[in-house]
Amino acid sequence: MPKTAAAGARPKPPTKGERTRSEILKAATRLFAAKGYDATGVRQIGEAVGVNPALINLYFGSKGDLFREVASQALAGAELRQGSVDQLGEQWARFTVQGVSARQARLKASNQSLQLLIRSAASPVAAATVRRAIGEQIVDPIASRLSGDRTQERAALIATYLLGFSLMQRVIGVDALAKGDHETLIRHLAEAVQNCVDDR
Questions:
Q1: Closest of 162, 16, 28 to residue 91, by C-alpha
Q2: Going from the N-terminus, what domains does the chain have, and what CATH number goes with each?
Q3: Backbone angles phi, psi at 75, to 5 degrees
């Protein structure tokens, strides 16, 4: 009989190749968010990680392929697939307003994702990739939770509420949002989002 892993066994540590790939993704995310797609080269990413740029092409194929994976990971929202439909407005609003601030690492990653959105707008190649990632990672998961007519349009509007709030609060730093009462902000954002969920 084939051997099975013992219950509670520790997962295998990542291989050197897996660690290198992960470090490349982290460095690429940081640089794309800080400098934009066009101003970031494979050589710069390689230097940030301390690897030959040819290794990046080996792992990812091209700068465009690397950016696609960065955008997909940066915009992934597992929380969009969870929760009761009648509470989605509250859940998504609460996560948007205060959820990411619970852990500094998540807040930093969230801010990098927002910077990635801003920087990508200047590049037609990057903007097209980010639009596709937003559709696949945010709009489509939201639409899958909705019923009724025009689910894609309502999902895109919900994504606009959530991403727009995050941008104004954490990147631009609008005082009323950055320093406002969380419960008040959550209540108003939740109502707007739930109206879209319920198609009201």
A1: 162
A2: 16-73 (1.10.10.60), 78-197 (1.10.357.10)
A3: -105, 0
Neighbour-count burial of 78, counting CB atoms closer than 10 A to its CB (0-12 exposed, 13-18 middle, 19+ buried): exposed
119-173 confidence digits (pLDDT tens)? 888 899 999 999 999 999 999 999 999 999 999 999 999 999 999 998 898 888 8
CA atoms within 13 A on the CB side of 75: 28
Of the candidates 34, 32, 12, the residue with the CA atom closest to the CA atom of residue 24: 32
Tokens representing residue 77 in the block? 């929202």
**The pLDDT value given to residue 77:** 67
Single-letter residue type at 37: Y
Q: pLDDT digit string (tens) for 20-35?
A: 999 999 999 999 999 9
125 closest CA partner among 75, 200, 65? 65
CB 140 within 8 A of CB 156: no
Distance CA 144, CA 123 (A): 30
Confidence of residue 105 (pLDDT cuts 50, 70, 90): very low
**Contact status, residue 171 vs residue 115, Cβ threshold 8 Å:** yes
15-52 burial, b at 16+ Cβ within 10 Å, e below that, comes to: eeeeebbeebbbbbbbbbbeebbeebebeebbebbebe
Closest CA to 107 of 94, 98, 116: 98
